[in-house]
Amino acid sequence: xxxxxxxxxxxxxxxxxxxxxxxxxxxxxxxxxxxxxxxxxxxxxxxxxxxxxxxxxxxxxxxxxxxxxxxxxxxxxxxxxxxxxxxxxxxxxxxxxxxxxxxxxxxxxxxxxxxxxxxxxxxxxxxxxxxxxxxxxxxxxxxxxxxxxxxxxxxxxxxxxxxxxxxxxxxxxxxxxxxxxxxxxxxxxxxxxxxxxxxxxxxxxxxxxxxxxx
Length: 214
Ligand SMILES: [Ca+2]
Hints:
alpha+beta, 4-stranded antiparallel sheet, 2 helices, 14 strands, 18% helix, binds calcium ion
């Protein structure tokens, strides 16, 4: 039996505990997403609640990182720039989050020299998404590294990475969540060990598709 099958069995066994959970947390995952330098394009589907419907997509090309909310999702943006921006640890992510607006659009997270998540160090992106037509709130914890790489013969190119450390979401509809809040230690962790396995599967599948079609 391979490790992937074992993970999904763990998911099934842990699902019974979800009924009483309020916040679902991924555990520390530290998922690295490359920036797609030199014309490459990478995509990653993120299924927050494991219903096989992507709630967000990450898109990267030439070291520019975009967030694409899907199926009614949105994320918090700075109304002055119109772009996604970090919220402070401990801030309440809710329908009316002070100093932010909800943006449902394909928009930049970070690019060379700019963006709300440029060189972010474990910063929080507040998000909302829909489960059976009801709105739920959550957060991603992200870091961004923008590293110049020397080239033979001189010069350099950039090689950026976006790191998704973890995520959490509130299972009660319309209830806000505190940025950085996690549940009490429980078997919920096992549920999202499986979730990130799904990310990986989607990533490889979509990446192949991107390579084949673009
Ligand atoms: Ca979903």
